[in-house]
Amino acid sequence: MSILVTGGAGFIGSNFVLDWLTQSNEFVITLDKLTYAGNRENLQSLNGDPRHVFVQGDIGDSTLVAYLLAQHQPRAIVNFAAESHVDRSIHGPEDFIQTNIVGTFRLLEAVRAYWGGLQSDARQAFRFLHVSTDEVYGSLGKDDPAFTEAHRYEPNSPYSASKAASDHLVRAYHYTYGLPVLTTNCSNNYGPYHFPEKLIPLMIVNALAGKPLPVYGDGQQIRDWLYVKDHCSAIRRVLDAGHVGEVYNIGGWNEKPNLDIVHTVCVLLDELRPRADGKPYKEQITYVADRPGHDRRYAIDARKIERELGWKPAETFETGIRKTVQWYLDNQAWVDNVTSGAYKQWVGKHYGDA
Question: How far apart are CA 170 and CA 185, in angstroms?
Answer without folding.
Answer: 13
